[in-house]
């Protein structure tokens, strides 16, 4: 076989199994989580069918991205298992082709899947998650007497320069009120003034802070008390609803947005470790496709006895479960500060890549 023919042959074998895996795992995840929520919204809360369908569509991209590593694992397990049971792997090895060469198109295809997952996480998924969150907040939860959001950060920029950062401890959208407000004002990138207030209220189209204090910050970083106030206007040209929509969660941000958010939080003196763990996980998780595909290929070439697709599917579920257990442990250790965020995010990939490397060496014997 010429190398190009071998590559096309392996990729063709993987293609149908990969699509089957994406469809199967998507159905399982949707049936196990989204369908129960959708049924509850339709029956218990009386949410309209059109709203529920929109929520389903917006949640789907994040589910599909989650299934890509699983599908890579399943497709390599099934495809290489089929090749092994038909003695095609034996024939290739007898022709002097090593397992590493056979697995080359697997790594190529899995890399394309990983890159696609990364770009989906950067573009489609954050927008879709944000849209789903808005539907939950404004179409589903609107029946509640108050709509509460906590720990929000807003920034004001002009000309590429940061002018102001506003932290809101609690926002009650329906009441148009804030609690525990902190305003940081910047002059040419330097923190120059801090204003704190117990509460803020939306009256006649204007935000007003109440019972607050103002402090100056000199170039050396020393803070000095300026004055206290009963009421003071907050320069924020957003309604309560717009304020709620302006605050994003890490899974609703791209890498660039998350990096900007980390810079803002750093100016607040906040704990950045959980955010850095999320940042590195944004990069690490898509590459699980490559790691799991290598493991699937190495396991698939082992002599097949019984079970076929059923065994391959069950083994895929077990390996994926083990991967996400290790990933969750790494995340917990990273967020608690026991290991660096970079190590925490890539721990599962490194561990399973080592496991896949050992299986690859055995598969070439």
UniProtKB/TrEMBL annotation:
Coiled coil: none annotated. Pfam families: LptF_LptG. Its main location: membrane. It is found in: Cell membrane. It is a multi-pass membrane protein. Keywords: Cell membrane, Membrane, Transmembrane, Transmembrane helix. The chain crosses the membrane at residues 14-36, 56-81, 102-120, 279-301, 308-326, 338-361. This is LPS export ABC transporter permease LptG. It comes from Dethiosulfovibrio marinus. The gene is lptG.
């Amino acid at each position: 076989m010429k190398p190009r023919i071998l590559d096309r042959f392996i990729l063709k074998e993987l293609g149908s199994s990969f699509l089957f895996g994406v469809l199967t795992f998507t159905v399982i995840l949707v049936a196990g989580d989204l369908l129960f929520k959708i049924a509850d919204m339709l029956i218990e809360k009386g949410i309209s069918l059109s709203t529920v369908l929109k929520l389903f569509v917006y949640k789907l991209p994040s589910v599909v991205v989650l299934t890509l590593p699983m599908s890579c694992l399943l497709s390599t397990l099934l495809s290489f298992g089929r090749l092994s049971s038909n003695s095609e792997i034996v024939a290739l090895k007898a022709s002097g082709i090593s397992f590493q060469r056979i697995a080359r198109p697997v790594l190529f295809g899995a890399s394309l899947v990983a890159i696609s997952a990364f770009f989906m996480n950067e573009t489609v998924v954050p927008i879709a998650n944000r849209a789903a969150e808005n539907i939950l907040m404004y179409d589903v939860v609107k029946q509640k007497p108050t709509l509460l959001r906590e720990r929000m950060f807003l920034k004001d920029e002009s000309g590429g320069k940061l002018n102001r950062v506003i932290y809101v401890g609690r926002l009650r959208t329906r009441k148009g009120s804030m609690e525990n407000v902190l305003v940081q004002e910047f002059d040419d990138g330097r923190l120059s003034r801090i204003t704190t207030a117990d509460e803020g209220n939306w009256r006649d189209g204007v935000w007003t802070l109440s019972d607050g204090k103002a402090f100056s910050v000199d170039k050396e970083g020393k803070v000095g008390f300026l004055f206290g106030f009963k009421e003071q206007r907050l320069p924020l040209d957003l309604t309560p609803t717009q304020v709620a929509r302006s605050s994003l969660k890490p899974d609703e941000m791209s890498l660039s947005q998350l990096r900007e958010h980390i810079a803002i939080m750093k100016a607040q003196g906040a704990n950045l470790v959980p955010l850095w763990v999320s940042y590195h996980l944004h990069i690490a998780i898509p590459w699980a496709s490559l790691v799991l595909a290598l493991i699937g290929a190495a396991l698939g070439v082992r002599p097949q006895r019984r079970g076929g697709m059923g065994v391959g599917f069950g083994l895929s579920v077990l390996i994926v479960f083990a991967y996400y257990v290790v990933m969750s442990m790494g995340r917990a250790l990273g967020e608690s500060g026991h290991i660096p965020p970079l190590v925490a995010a890539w721990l599962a990939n490194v561990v399973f890549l080592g496991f896949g490397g050992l299986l690859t060496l055995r598969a070439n014997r």
